[in-house]
Write a structure and sequence with these properties.
102 residues; two-stranded parallel ribbon; 3 helices; 7 strands
Length: 102
Amino acid sequence: MKFQASRLGQSVMVVLGDRLIVGNSGALLRQLLSEIEGGTTSVTIDFSNTKSVDSSGLETLVYLSKKIHDRKGEVTLLNFDSGLRSLMELTELDTLFMFEGR
């Protein structure tokens, strides 16, 4: 998966590629943990181009959320698929994120 990250102050915006899966979620997590260690307190992840997210991708998002909340920050999921959002609501994982779009 290719993703683009851009930083503005203490915020980072990431635009994901077509899939967030076991084969690439680790790279995303490493990049964002590095950003958090560098002082980032707000992460926005844009899922506009993303067609699938597996359990490893969801695990990455949850772990990221916990790490940034420890620093009093927030994670926003932008254009997150409505079906996955429903699953997150059912499992009460939606409380870890802010959602925008779709």
